[in-house]
Amino acid sequence: MAREKSVCVHKGGMPVATTEQQIKDLLKRYDTNQNGLLDKAEVQRAFNKLGSLFPSYRAYRGIKIADDNGDGVVDTYELEKLVQYVKKQNYNLANYKNLHVV
Ligand SMILES: [Ca+2]
Ligand SMILES: [Ca+2]
């Protein structure tokens, strides 16, 4: 049984630092129609998953901050800025389900 798993799962109460890569991966997973762009509904679902109390507001602000070309959606380049915005909210991806950050 020497099969290695490529995914490392942290269980228990060990605090895991929220990295930019984690945030980026999470946001990308919420590109539900997989067009490479995150619209407000998709970003809102991501914030909801992160435990935000105001996912609609966060999505609005996040897109406003990240959206450089003003088309209302977040593309791959703008995603970096959205990641920074999410990071500033200090969500802990390890236990985002019961975390509430204002
Ligand atoms: Ca999309
Ligand atoms: Ca854009």
UniProtKB/TrEMBL annotation:
The keyword Calcium applies. Keywords: Calcium. InterPro entries: EF-hand-dom_pair, EF_Hand_1_Ca_BS, EF_hand_dom. It comes from Dipteronia dyeriana. It comes from the Eukaryota. Pfam families: EF-hand_7. GO terms for molecular function: calcium ion binding. The keyword Calcium applies. This is EF-hand domain-containing protein. Residues 18-53 form the EF-hand domain.
